[in-house]
Amino acid sequence: MLYVIWALFVAGTVYSFIHTIRKNRQHEQRTADWPRVQAMVTGSRAGWSGGTGNMTRNRRFFPTYQFTDLHGRPFIGKSDVSSVEQPVPGSQVEIAYNPANPSESFLVSTQTRTALGCLIPFFAVFAVALFWFIGVFPMG
Fold first, then answer.
1. Spatial contact of 62 and 79, defined as CB atoms under 8 Å apart
2. Structure pTM?
3. Residue 54 above 80 pLDDT?
């Protein structure tokens, strides 16, 4: 029975990783040819981290920014990428924007890729250790 639960846990986690990797890759491909410019942070929106399970909720900040497209027109944007530190108004961030619709812009970030690069090996070791634990300490 424990092996079935373990297999379902591993399958669910692998599915989640694959979904996140595909979504991140699609986003990167979609924005690959978009111009990248420096934007000035104008402020931030405050929010909270998920706080699921036993984790405590943490205050997060989502930068708002202003940039100028290649034609010199100003635009404003807000990031979906949060940080623990409140961004300093006037600081610079790199953004990519859709040349066909400059109001569509994204903060250039490697956080998702970095997080996955750390989580995948951690999960692999955890899954192997859990499998070993189930075999060494069987219930019943």
1. yes
2. 0.66
3. no
